[in-house]
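Structure, all two chains, one model.
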Amino acid sequence: MVTLQPGGVYTKSQLLKELETLVSCGMFEKVDLEVKPKSDNTVGLTVSFVESVWSAAKQFKCINVGLMSQSGQVDFDQDMTEREKMDYLRKQERDYQQRVRGAKPCILPENVRGEVLGMMKKQEKVSARMLQKIRDHVQKWYHNEGFVCAQVVNFGNLNTNEVVCEVVEGDITKVEYQFQDKLGNLVEGNTQIPIIDRELPQQLRPGHIFNIGAGKQALKNINSLALFSNIEVNPRPDETKEGGIVVEIKLKELEPKSAEASIQPGGTVSFEHRNIYGLNRSIVGSVTSSNLLNPQDDLSFKLEYVHPYLDGVDDRSKNRTFKTSCFNTRKLSPVFVAGPNMDEAPPVWIDRVGFKANITESFTRQSKFTYGLVVEEITTRDETNSICTHGSRAMPSGGLSMDGPPTTLSGTGIDRMAFLQANITRDNTEFVNGAIVGDRYIFQLDQGLGIGSKNPLFNRHQLTMTKFINLNNPEKGAGKPLPAVLVLHGHYAGCVGDLPSYDAFALGGPYSVRGFTNGELGAGRNILELATELRVPVRNTHVYGFVEHGTDLGSSKDVKGNPTEFFRRVGHGTSYGAGVKLGLVRGEYIVDHNAGTGTLFFRFGERF
Amino acid sequence: MLMNFRDWISYRLGSSLLSARPFALDDGASEGDAHGTTPNEFVGTISANRFPSNDSRASEVGTSPHAGAIHSGLLHPDDDNKMSDPLRKVEALQFKFLRLVYRMGVPPNTDVVAQVLYRLQLANLIKAGESDARRTNLAINKARVIAAQQEAPGGPDLDLPLRILLLGKTGAGKSATINSMFDERMVTTGALHPATDRIKKIEGTIKGLRVTVIDTPGLMPHYQSQRKNRKILHSVKRFIKRTPPDIVLYFERVDHVNSKYSDYPLLKLMTDILGSSMWFSTVLVMTHCCSSPPEGPDGYPLEYDAYTRYCKNVVQRHIQAAVSNTQLDNPVVLADNHPMCRRNTKGERVLPNGQKSAYLDELDYRETLYLKKQWKEGIRSQKLAEAQNNDASSAVHDDYEESTSPDVVHLSDMEIPLSFDSDHPVHRYRHVITDDQLFRPVLDPQGWDHDIGFDGINFEASKEVKKKVSAAVAGQMRKDKEDMYVQSECSVSYSDQRGYSASGGLDMQTANRDLVCTIHGDAKFRNMSWNATGAGISIIKFGTKYFTGAKLEDAITIGKRVQLAANAGRMTGCGQVAHGGGMEITIRGKDYPVREECVTIAVTSLSFEKETVIGGNLQSDFRVGRGLKMSVSANLNSRNLGRLTIRTSTSDHAEIGLIVAFSLIQFFLRRISARTDKGEQQSDSYMDD
């Protein structure tokens, strides 16, 4: 407590002040400072004190005095008569009782209170040092729980049966938002406050006690809006209300508009306008082509509009986002792929161009329901970029057989269709010490409307179930070991009605049956995939072994032209292997059970 | 942040709340015995002086180049020294004032002039009595004529030495105003840190008037130490004791005045030390007037005039409170010293009427300065850290960084490319943030249908192996059942402060089924402060063939912004030899490391089997205005092959995005026209078969 340092130089007034603080701190009955000059021109300083001691107490109570006004202390007049003194003391006691009754209870749990009582029982009398220990104990609990603004300010009701511990817990009185420009000057923000306000966890709202964990959560949530380059969440004492905390949120906004062009003469032009009207709506677009002024078939484009808070920013019970996009893709079809015992088949490219509008309703961060409409035009092309109508394979003679399965429903190489689409994801997986544990169910549905080439009417449905079972339930916490996890996975996909071959379900591939290339096992109308994986923690990462199986359930023959048979694929397959996770990358050795050969793979991301 | 807050709260609670029934114990409290003595001892000398005695600030007298010219004016003493009659004095004053008015080019019938003349007249009347009213009236007209005559070329010099004292908070722009007044760089100014650290006397002439300006160090805002302010003000007082200033200019930034403005403590301190009389000759100078006014309650920017009036009122009110004289009304001058401040046709600076672009320009300029400062500080701290590391030789291990436990923070879901499927497998890419992001996915936009296409892996890692030795690995790879693709570079480099560096590396790349391996080694040393020489060798293995090469290079730095580099190399293998060489000149922009502006001109030549190709290359990065970055590169070689690339990115001119619309319309038009003659095309393709 003594702030004087050996070797320091102090004035008399400083010494007096030091003495005064020691006397007035309430811990001591009496404090003396004794200065002894020494031979080497220095002085020795002796602080002698008598510790304050109060009568023993059996009860302990903790109250939150955060937002209460200070108990007014009437000066104790030395000239008072005995009776006046008695009256004065009684009045003060009464006032204090009232104060204790009026105070909010603390969030201190019962077991901590019990611990404090235990500390008190050990001692006969309540001494200043014991109070100090209690203070440290109580404060330690608060700070460990993240209530960093909590502070024990006083002990009251001493000399009675019950010790009252007064705590300023750090009640939030207000949340303040500040926008800053690049240099940190205050500016008017573009973003509307309710957008940010939505993201605050309940615990960071006025009336709650400031918790650093809630602050971090808020930071994370606001960051996920992707509107700000810098976010700070700071607690600040409230000037207007003693003991209150103002949560100050400082934000630096990103530039809402930007455009980029790279012209040579082909190239990319992209633009984005984010945070329109300060409501986080955004338009993003880009075009890439080898000749922007006279675009050929290599043009790829993307236009996207996102409109969050469809039910209004203030409606916090619902979180629906409308999204519409217009784009094209150009990808290889896994349906027209040759089997393992055959020469490579000429690739079939699936060109899709169209638009998609959907509404996503978020139930939790991960569980979502998306529904909407898709309108697309599908063009199938061969290697030379010309439209092809049928798949082809290399003949043993060297020529190409063109009598493969038809690529499109219409047979012309171009299909147009509109259909409804839905996706329900129920995902309650969570990270336990860095490993995913929990369940995930995904149901996907495409419902044809009979609109388009050949009036396609179909129903495609897929159900994916994945369970991550925590086998040994280790203690949670940073730096704790990973749990051992057993993964069970099943995926069923089926189709009723018209099925163009590009939309048949392909078997094999990194997310279907590992160890095979995409479509290596076949393409069917109904497929079933089963997988299990056991993950064992080794040092800081997982080492795992797995078995996977996929089958077309004999439905390949129901696909037009039976591409499975045409490309000599078996229609089912099993693989097993072992691997290790290196961050987000998996390195795995997989044995293709059909052929009995093994290969090393590297993939980014999770399989499940 | 939190520690500070805790400190604050304990301090606050310790000082205010605890006074009633206090209980303030610091964690490091002495836990001695009941009668234990604290080990604190102190030396018996108690200094009564709060401040070190060397606080008297040396006043530095800056002699301006004009000083000689002005003093010559003193050789023609005016006859007004001989006058004893107060009436005559007033008349002489009139002369001077009118001459001043002429000199400044102010129309004689403006408010201020009229007012002063009226007051002089009033003084005359009081002194001379009613009877002389006519005489004085006449005198003014006469004085005007005389003044005009004297002002004519060849007339006597006007001797009106002016002493101006500048006071104001740091960063208000006192020194900058001096430079503006003399239209010359008389003193150094600093945009973001205090530039004036002592009282300075600057003498100069403005339109033939001898002006002495006393520049003072900036006062600290009131919430910081008043001690320093007191010290500054006391030294100012000492400085002006002998020669009191005629005018005091009190500076305040317009953009710092707001409803929360409270400099009362500072103004009060000034009044206490310099005396309240100082305020009677004070002119308020509102600087940074080019900044646009803030928005009013209705959301529109305030009127410029209304805003400055408001600012003036706020400051005036505080001054009145400090002097406790509500009658006091100080004149106000608006000023802006920024070089970007607009000038009118005569080259005089003009204040805007709340122009937003001026503010943004200013902001941009300041941002550049700020970034530069940050950059310099970064370098300095890095050097400092290095020096400390050398000193401590890592004996004292700083475990502060280690104690920060890795917080479990989930990234928001990764953006995945658009697709027409109902699948949206973001869950595959969820992960817990680890300290270093080693891997990133590589998107294959033309992957498999119904698949996202994150097929490749990009990796990048660097590590300091030992002091001065660092290793780095970077590259891309894809490993599937059938194909494997690797492109990687690993290198180990050594560098020391003397400018010597060496590096060795191994690059690998797959080409079809073969692996191309390159082993290379480089060494570079800075033999002079402006010259660095380097050499390197490399061996390339491609299949069973080997190629070896060597190169030599030299870089010369001219000044801070120009760099010249030249290199020459030779490569042999399979009985063939290739030679190459190049020269490159790079000119960097003024704000180079912060704003990446530079121009590079390069000439390369390559000779292989008696054939030589010479190529030229021009690359330029620059900014157009505030929010438009351009990068133009062009190259051309002796075979008349060339290429021009323009890249631009902007935040202001999003109109560039319209090219998207243009391309799309073209694309769809083409598709529609293609569809009509699709039948023909198909028959064509069959015929080809």
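The two ends of chain A are 59 Å apart (CA to CA).
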